Amino acid sequence: MYNVALIGMGNIGLLFDKDPNTYTALSHAKGIYLSDDFDLKYVADPSEANLIDLKKLFTNVTYFSDYRSLITCKDIDIIVIAT
Question: What is the pTM of this model?
Answer without folding.
Answer: 0.86
